[in-house]
Amino acid sequence: MMIVFNPVAGRRRAQLLWRVLDVLVANGVRLDLAETHRPGHASELAREAASRGEPMVVAAGGDGTIAEVANGLIGSHTHLGVIPLGTANVLAHELGLPFSPTAVAAALAFGRTVQLWPGQIMRDQEARLFVQMAGIGFDAAVVHNLRFSLKKVFGKGAYVMQSLREMARYDFPMIRLRIDDRETEAASIVISKGRLYGGTFPLARDTNPSARGFSVVLFDRAGPAAAALYGAMLPMHLLGSAPGVRHMRAAEIDFLGNVHVPTQTDGDPAGFMPHRIRDARAPIQVVAG
Questions:
Q1: Residues 213 and 266 in one domain
Q2: How much is the pTM?
Q3: Which of 111, 138, 172 is the last residue of a domain?
Q4: Among 9, 100, 258, 266, which residue is least crowded by beta carbons within 10 Å?
């Protein structure tokens, strides 16, 4: 079993990882630990492991690390394991993965899997995979400008602080897009494989992480007042039914025009508005317990 770990995760999260590894080693599981050193390194490590026939590669980190490892496993028979060490751990909550060190170790050792069909954003000749969701607009601006030092100290609270900053300076441009064969526009968009957003908060509807297709959540209202309203409704678990929020199901999404709008995938910055969003070319098997 190969573990891919981002050493930037911090001391507390590293301690959680060691507790999981101690349980695995005590039960006779052979482990290889590989640390990442740059963006995209986790994908390279996972791809190399899959090519040499490793049965499982475990992503120890948050949703961004999981997405990178998944990107390296697409098209292979290697399973994806997860040790949730991130701030939000949205995918782990979505799939009902365990969090306690003993339960995580047991799940990895037992090896029962569930299917996950990731999506990918495409820009020119580049493609970036996501396992839970992609955001285009205000929430991506928050992710782009959030300092890691702030996130490390305040956790989820850092997103609230950064959101207040972005309300004063983000331009809230309208985004034109085509959802299958229907053209529309919105101020912000979340394209999701799962139901949850930002941790355990429900947002999307009609989701099936194991199948092709996406749930598209469109935020029609623009401006600081709308952003404040949506932010207030999130912790009340009401964001998905907030005024000016629409839900659509889609197989493909194309973006129209050249608006310079920030994009995020699985809580990490992902450049600016993509040309299109499609399903990844194949599903992956995620170890669930």
A1: yes
A2: 0.92
A3: 111
A4: 258
